[in-house]
Amino acid sequence: MAIQPRPSLPNKNTLYLARSGGGKSQALKQNRDIPKSGVRVILWDKSHDHKAHHYDNKKAFVRALMAGLGSGKGFRIAFSGGVGIEDFEWWCKAVWVALNGSHLTYVVVEELSEVCISVAKASPEAARLLNQGRKYGMRFHGTSQKPQEISKTYYDQCPVKYIGPQIGANVRKFAKEIGGADSQVAGLGDLEFLVFDGRSAIFKRFKYKK
To answer: H-helix or E-strand containing 114?
Structure first.
C-alpha cells in the first residue's frame, strides 16, 4: 500500500476538459508543472497519446512498474490494455501500491468519462486515490471530452482546471465554475484554455501548440 505520508504536500490535482479535438492531451503534455524527465509517471493511456513504455498485459505492466520503483530513477509506464471499470479499478490499486510520500508520482488518466461508474462518487479504488493520494505524493492529471459524465469526486479533488472549447450546456457550467462569463468559454478555439488554479478568483488564458 501507499507509504510515507506527507500531509503537508499541496493538492495540485488537475483536470483538462474540452470537446473532442479541443487539445486536452496537448495542454497536459505542455503543462510545465510536470517535469519532462527524472520523475515517476504512471499512465492509463489506451490510445497511446503519451510517450511512455506501454503495456497491454497486466503482468508485464506490474513487472515494469516494480522495476521502475526499484531503480530509484524516473520512469514513464503506461497501461494500455484496459477495457472498462474493472480494469481501471485494478490499475488504481497498482498505482496506490506504488505511491510513496517521499517521491512525487504523476498519475495520468486519459478520458475519464470512460472509467466513471456515475456522476456521483468515483469507483472505490479511484476514490481512494483521489481522496488520499495527495499526502502520498500523487499529482493527478485527468482528461475528458465529456465532462458531464465524470464523477463529482474528480471535480472536488482536482482544484486546478483547464477549461477548453465546450459545447451546449457545458459553456455555462464552466463559466460558472471559474467565475467567468459565458462568452469567455464560448469563444475558446482549439488548443485555447482558461486555467483556474483553485486558489484565487483569477484565471489565465493560454493557447497551446499542436
So the answer is: none
Residues in the chain, overall count: 210
pLDDT digits (tens, 9 = 90+) for 143-191: 999 999 999 999 999 999 999 999 999 999 888 888 888 999 999 999 9
- Give dist(CA 53, CA 22) in Å, integer: 26
CATH of domain 14-207: 3.40.50.300
Q: Look at the pTM and tell me if it is higher than 0.90.
A: yes
The CB-side HSE value for 154 (13 A sphere, CA atoms) comes to 28
Helices (H) and strands (E) in the chain, counts: 7, 9
Domain boundary assignment for the chain: 14-207
Helix (H, G, I), strand (E, B) or coil at 35: coil
Residues 113-124 have pLDDT tens digits of: 999 999 999 999
